[in-house]
Structures are given as structure tokens and as C-alpha cells.
Amino acid sequence: MKRLVIVGGGFAGVWSAIGAAWKLHEKRADHIEIVLISPHPDLHIRPRLYEQDLNDVCVPLDSVLQPVGIQRIQGMVRSVHPVEKQIVLDGERTMSYDRLVLAAGSRLHRPDIPGLDEWAFDVDTYEGAVKLDRHLRRLPHHPLPGREVVVVVGGGFTGVEIATEMVDRLQKIGLNDRRIVLVEKGAVLGADWGPHLRSVVEKALDDLEIETRLSTSIRSVTRTGVELDTGERITAATVIWAAGMRANPLTRTIPAKKDELGRLSVDEYLRVNGHPHLFAAGDIAKAKTDETHHALMSCQHAIPQGKIAGHNAAADLLDEPLKPYRQERYVTCLDLGPWGAVYTEGWDRAVKATKKEAKKIKQTINRVWIYPPVGNTADILAVAAPDASHRRNN
Ligand SMILES: Cc1cc2nc3c(=O)[nH]c(=O)nc-3n(C[C@H](O)[C@H](O)[C@H](O)COP(=O)(O)OP(=O)(O)OC[C@H]3O[C@@H](n4cnc5c(N)ncnc54)[C@H](O)[C@@H]3O)c2cc1C
């Protein structure tokens, strides 16, 4: 029996697993086992963690994996040893593999700013989003200073989505005299967004009366607010950190080329350069989407990469040809709270829809398209084929 191991139960991991299962099913190969390792029993729908309703953001991994015969181990991988083809899990348990897909994703980078770890919330993980939600729900019952004030640090996609979402969230819990401040250390919001997208976002922030502080960093966070590097102090019961993603630190255990975010360089087949039995997909990989662009840390890229990496790891074990990863189409859909949303196409982000029209697209992406099919073997394999659309119900 040969073993194909997938590390991570996020988008890239789940789609790697079913991509590999599709290949084994196609070739009727029953001498290869697929094992997925993740610390949680659920796939967390991370793109929805800024939303106020967190009821539907956990999909049991077994509802996707079991129907296609994939084993799941709950655990954390501590290190990867590509030369020995082994991984070490918690408790120093070792496991050998014939092919490995690394899909351990990314995490929010929290720099060493006084009080940040202790007092700042985030929407990076399910646990972080639940903690923020509990805090917000408690606010109306506690006369904390600045309880109507939210400071969001980081003017990228996540920072803008959580800041605009706060407008309705504060209102719903009865805090009507709200003040929301978005702090960004760059001179503009979204350094690589381009002028079209940026001007729509600026208009939405203006209409929603969200204040911005550009070219500004935070010096410290306390229970009652933040101090900015300009000397300004904002009293706020809620500070949310949304600045800076990094690839999972597992990459540090692998002797291979990485970029400034810690992502592993991969070839067109999503194989880690220099390691023939190791593939990587999703936020942990730096992959080319076409001749000029690299994939972003996004679900949009993690899902198709997962499918191809899983397919290729299985195909490699079967001596079948590998498929190159290419993804020329690129879109952006950014939620802007009660203002609506903005939808763009292409890498120069030409605006195609705004407000309610874009919001409909955003809700379809977040609530339908990025969910894997569950329960039914045929439905799961149908979207897992390397050339099939991954979208459910489209
Ligand atoms: C608030 C928010 C909004 C977003 N909005 C969008 C959006 O609108 N569009 C978009 O395309 N993307 C969006 N993203 C980004 C998107 O969620 C990520 O790019 C995507 O989740 C990456 O998938 P992944 O599988 O590579 O990694 P992850 O989702 O990070 O999954 C990694 C998995 O690996 C597991 N893992 C970690 N370490 C280990 C270990 N040592 N051993 C075993 N398992 C491990 C984790 O528990 C997790 O299951 C958003 C993200 C956030 C936080």
C-alpha cells in the first residue's frame, strides 16, 4: 500500500484530497491510501469570518472526505522531512509518505507591538471570530470606555471588509452612536488594488462615515484603545488587527526557496522546487497563475491549486502525466457592509459591479461557490476532476 498524505484541512487541503481521490477513482487504483491531517474536524470557511452570522462557517471534513474514501487524522504536523519522506506529528509520532501535499495555509502575523496579543481581536481563525463576536455581544451590557468605537488596523481586503461590516454589527447590538476608524500604515488603502477599485472603496468608506488614518501605524494597544505613531490616542473598546498574512511556519522546516511571506516556490505542477515527492497548494505556495502573475493568498487560488496538487500527487504515484496549474481569470469581490460590495475583473481590477449588484455576487461566492459538495460520492467526484468547475450549483 502506498500513502499520499495531505497536511491541512482548509480549502487547498480538502480540494487536494478530493482531487487525488478523483484520480484514484478514474484509474480504479486501490493500492494507494489518502490521509488528510488537520487539527480541526471542520473546514472553516475563512472568507466568511468577518460576517456577523457564524452559524454556517464550519463544514465537517468527514462529510466531504468519507464518501470518497479519504482517512482523516486529527493532529498537528510539527515538521516535514522531505529527504526521508517523513512527517513528525504532535507527540513526536512519525509517519512516512510516498507523496505529500502541503496545504497548511497561512496565519495572521502579529508583530511585537505592546498589548497587541492581549487586547486586539482578529477574524483570521474561527476561534478568533467567535471571540470577537462574544465581545461585541457583551458590549451593550458593560459601560466600557469607547464601547461604540472600533479601530481596525490594516487597510487591505480583510480590514476593509470587517470595518464596513461593523456598521451593521454595532447597530444590531444597539450601539448607534458608532465610530469606526481604519488605520493603514501605507499611504493608500490596498497598495496593489489600482485606482478603479480603490476609488470605489474610498467612496463607500466615506458614505459609511468610516474614518481613515493613512501612513499611520499603531504604537500600542490597551484594554481601552490604541495609541498611534502620530501621538493620537483613540479610546476604543474594540481593536481588530487585520494587517499582514504569513505562510504557515511549517515551511521553515523545509530546505527550499521561500518568498518574503514564507511561501514555498513551486513549479508549474505545484511541486516544491528541489523536492520531487512534495507538492504545495494554497496560501503556503508561491505559484505562477500565468506568464506574469503569481497566485495571491486567496480561496480563489487555493481551490484550483488544491485540485491540481492532489491530482498530480496521485498521478505521480500512478506514473500518469501531471497537469500544469494555470489560472488566467482573476476577479475580486469585496464586501462593503451596508453600502453593498464591489466586483472587479482582471489584474488591473476593472470595476464591473458595485453596491447591491456586487453584493449579490459576493453572497453567492461566500455562501455557495466556495463550499465543497458534501455527502454524495458522485457529486464530490464530479467537481474534483482537474478540468471541472469547482462551483456548486452554478
Ligand atoms: C476574513 C477573511 C476574508 C477572506 N476573504 C477572501 C475572499 O473574499 N476571497 C478569497 O479568495 N480569499 C479570501 N480570504 C483568504 C482565504 O480564506 C485563504 O486564502 C484560504 O483560506 C487559503 O486556503 P488554504 O487551504 O491554503 O489555507 P487555510 O484556509 O489557512 O487552511 C489551512 C489548514 O491547515 C491546517 N493546519 C495549519 N497548520 C497545520 C499543521 N501544522 N498540521 C496540520 N494542519 C495544519 C489549518 O488548521 C487549516 O485547516 C479571506 C481570509 C480571511 C481571514
Automatic annotation (TrEMBL):
Keyword Flavoprotein set for record: yes
Gene3D superfamilies: 3.50.50.100
Presence of the UniProt keyword Transport in the record: no
Domain (FAD/NAD(P)-binding) ranges: 3-306
Keywords associated with the record: FAD, Flavoprotein, Oxidoreductase
Classification via InterPro entries: FAD/NAD-bd_sf, FAD/NAD-binding_dom, NADH-Q_oxidoreductase
Record-level GO BP terms: aerobic electron transport chain
Superkingdom of this protein's organism: Bacteria
SUPFAM superfamilies the UniProt entry points to: FAD/NAD(P)-binding domain
Cofactor list: FAD
GO MF annotation terms: NAD(P)H dehydrogenase (quinone) activity
Transmembrane spans: none
One Pfam family linked to the record: Pyr_redox_2
Entry similarity comment: Belongs to the NADH dehydrogenase family.
The protein's name: Dehydrogenase
Organism listed in the record: Polycladomyces abyssicola
Lineage: Bacteria, Bacillati, Bacillota, Bacilli, Bacillales
